[in-house]
Write a structure and sequence with these properties.
By secondary structure, the protein is α+β, with helices and mostly antiparallel strands. The chain folds into four domains: about 1-205, Histidine kinase-like ATPase, C-terminal domain (Heat Shock Protein 90); about 225-355, Ribosomal Protein S5, domain 2 (2-Layer Sandwich), CATH 3.30.230; about 390-485, Rossmann fold (3-Layer(aba) Sandwich), CATH 3.40.50; about 485-619, Four Helix Bundle (Hemerythrin (Met), subunit A). The strands form five sheets. Strands 1-6-5-4-7-3-2-8 form an eight-stranded mixed sheet. Strands 9-10-13-11-12 form a five-stranded mixed sheet, with helices on both faces. It has a three-stranded parallel sheet with strand order 17-16-18. The N and C termini lie far apart (about 115 Å). It binds adenosine-5'-diphosphate and magnesium ion (MG).
Length: about 625
């Protein structure tokens, strides 16, 4: 029998393990089960090359809970360890000393703790026993135990079957792990897709069920689709796997199978979920695996921000898991993985766009959000997406940017040669303006979603020679080009008179009045909201930084009085000043009403005044 001290430079590593990994104690199970998996994979390999002789037997991993005895046992039939190997791997701590460990992990935000491995058992156990038999015929079965201090015991025992059994004597503070439901849950979380079947047994529960002898069922799917070849998989396979990941999820729109082995290893399947409303967006749905071991579902930094909306799994042994986040961002592999995922997603979208445009357009409601978000945040993606971004006009027809420009080439260019994209944020509310645009032969596209306001702001900077103008930003003649006033039938005096009559004082509104000669079938008064100020106000209302200031400002509105409209011939002739004022005010209010800017007392006054006028009061 050998007794000794675990070799670490500073006197004791155990308090450090506890302190630094405090928040994540449950990972001990992942570490021990993945060690068991590694050992089992090794024996398979050794057997296949003839290094290990004899039958392999059923290769499985057993996790047994005995809450009465306060033990958790993890048993495998892998390669096992010789006495020398136990000494080498378990006694010589994975890191050479506590000091090094401290410097390595001083950043508190450690993600994943691979590398700590076997010793994480001491986060939850006051004593760990190991019983192991190497596959090598001449090796003895070895017993090792340690009680969470640098002292250990190591000796040979009676020969047992090949493999390793690890018994954890769960400590007082970790009693929670003696709960079968909890323990099984952790196992399912981390080991759901490990390549060796894993069985969970609650020893005490089993006693009761002895006669039933239910069919044993492993807790994991050893062959998840991401490790298979895409050519072997059907649509049903992908949809079934999606439900395995998200039992309550709606059928995804489509998916991308990632499969790279150079210059880094990366496999996985990313799904595009259905998104109806932007507020439904759920981030943190992508799971990160390392050789089929679950690591985390916080994939920020690894997956580009705009693709966080995707669902699915990615698996890469090349992502450094035991380092801080700030390091991760700068890691060349992580950056390459990021770029690769972005490229794959863009390629897939382009492929669907090219091969099945109808399908693409049908799914645009969900897709548009990814695409627009991606175009705003990632220039490489933008380059590709410029080809397949589509905009839907008010009649349900879709245009790419190029198609839109071609369709509007002659009509929607301003004097400087800039292309003007006319849009509506609310086809119902802005109907009058849309109809006016249609009469002119303009194409109006819908920009109704939450992301659109920011999207068009950004695209004006990224796309050359393109401006977005909302249909109600100006009277229709001025939307594309600021034109000089058309000829008016009114005299100079009459024009001045109308201008004075229409100069309104309305709280919360900043009204500018102009009198112009528009066509006789245009409305008598049109309320418009200058593009720039309206956007600022919208952004202010959506919240956020500098723009919050604009939210406080009064709404800016321009009243364009159409001097050529016949109604003004009567109004100008009206001798009763009271009636004249009321008529003018009603025309102005109708215009404001169409913009949704008539509210509160102003709205009440309008209603009362209208009723009075219909009753002929004051006439
Ligand atoms: P890592 O898994 O990163 O190598 P660990 O601390 O988890 O680090 O394990 C250290 C070593 O101990 C392993 O590399 C392996 O050689 C050995 N080992 C641990 N668990 C087992 C096991 N169940 N069967 C055989 N060898 C094991
Ligand atoms: Mg390990």
């Amino acid at each position: 029998m050998q007794k000794g001290q675990i070799r670490v430079q500073t006197e004791n590593i155990f308090p450090i393990i506890k302190k630094f990994l405090y928040s994540d104690h449950e990972i001990f199970l992942r570490e021990l089960v993945s060690n068991a998996t590694d050992a089992t994979q090794k024996i398979k390999t050794l057997s296949s090359i003839g290094e290990a002789k004899g039958e392999l037997g059923e290769l499985r991993i057993d996790v047994r809970l005995d809450a009465k005895e306060k033990t958790i046992t993890i048993e495998d039939c892998g390669v096992g360890m010789t006495k020398e190997e136990v000494d080498k791997y378990l006694n010589q701590v994975a890191f050479s000393g506590a000091e090094e460990f401290l410097t390595k992990y001083k950043d508190a935000s450690i993600i994943g703790h691979f590398g700590l491995g076997f010793y994480s058992a001491f986060m939850v156990a006051s004593k760990v026993e190991v019983l192991t038999q190497s596959y090598q015929d001449d090796a003895a079965t070895v017993y090792w135990s340690c009680e969470g201090s640098p002292e250990f015991e190591l000796y040979e025992v009676e020969k047992k079957q090949r493999g390793t059994k690890i018994i954890l004597h769960v400590n007082e503070e970790s009693a929670e792990f003696l709960d079968a439901f909890k323990l099984k849950g952790i196992l399912e979380k981390f080991c759901k897709f490990l390549p060796i079947p894993i069985f969970f047994t609650d020893v005490n529960a089993e006693v009761k069920k002895e006669e039933e002898k239910e069919e044993e069922k492993s807790i994991n799917n050893t062959n998840p689709i991401w490790v298979k070849k895409p050519s072997e998989l059907t649509k049903e396979d992908y949809e079934k796997f999606y439900r395995e990941l998200y039992p309550f999820g709606e059928t995804p729109l489509f998916w991308i199978h990632l499969n790279v082995d150079y210059p880094f290893n990366l496999t996985g399947v990313l799904y595009f979920p259905k998104i109806k409303q932007s507020y439904e967006i759920q981030k943190d749905k992508i799971q990160l695996y390392c050789n089929q071991v679950f690591v985390t579902d916080e994939v920020k930094d690894i997956v580009p921000e705009f693709l966080m909306l995707l669902h699915g799994v990615i698996d890469s042994p090349d992502i450094p898991l035991n380092v801080s986040r700030s390091y991760l961002q700068g890691d060349p592999n992580v950056r390459k993985i990021n770029a690769h995922i972005t490229k794959k997603v863009a390629d897939k979208l382009e492929e669907i766009f090219k091969n099945d445009r109808t399908e693409f357009e049908q799914k645009w409601e969900s897709l548009g959000l990814f695409v627009k978000y991606g175009m705003m945040t990632d220039d490489k993606f933008l380059d590709k997406a410029n080809k397949f971004l589509v905009m839907e006009n008010v009649d349900g027809k879709f245009f790419t940017l190029d198609e839109y420009k071609t369709a509007t080439e002659t009509l929607q260019k301003n004097k400087e040669g800039k292309h003007i994209v006319l849009y509506t944020t609310n086809p119902v509310q802005q109907d009058a303006y849309i109809q006016a645009c249609k009469l002119k032969g303009y194409e109006v596209v819908k920009m109704e979603t939450l992301v659109d306001a920011a999207f068009l702001n950004t695209m004006e900077m990224k796309w050359e020679n393109t401006s977005f103008v909302r249909v109600d930003a100006d009277i229709v003649d001025n939307l594309i080009d600021k034109q000089e006033s058309t000829e008016s039938v009114l005299s100079k005096e009459e024009t001045e008179q109308l201008k004075t009559l229409f100069t309104l004082q309305i709280p919360e509104l900043h009204v500018t009045t102009e009198v112009k000669g528009l066509s006789t079938d245009s409305a008598p008064v049109i309320a418009t909201r200058p593009e720039f100020m309206r956007r600022m106000k919208d952004m202010g209302a959506a919240g956020g930084g500098m723009t919050a200031f604009y939210a406080q400002m009064p709404d800016e509105v321009t009243l364009t009085v159409n001097g050529n409209h016949p109604v003004f011939q009567n109004i100008l002739k009206e001798s009763n000043e009271d009636i004249k004022t009321k008529q003018v005010r009603n025309l102005a209010d109708l215009a404001l009403l169409s913009q949704g800017l008539l509210k509160g007392a102003e709205l009440t006054n309008f209603i009362n005044r209208s009723v009075q006028m219909m009753q002929g009061v004051g006439q």
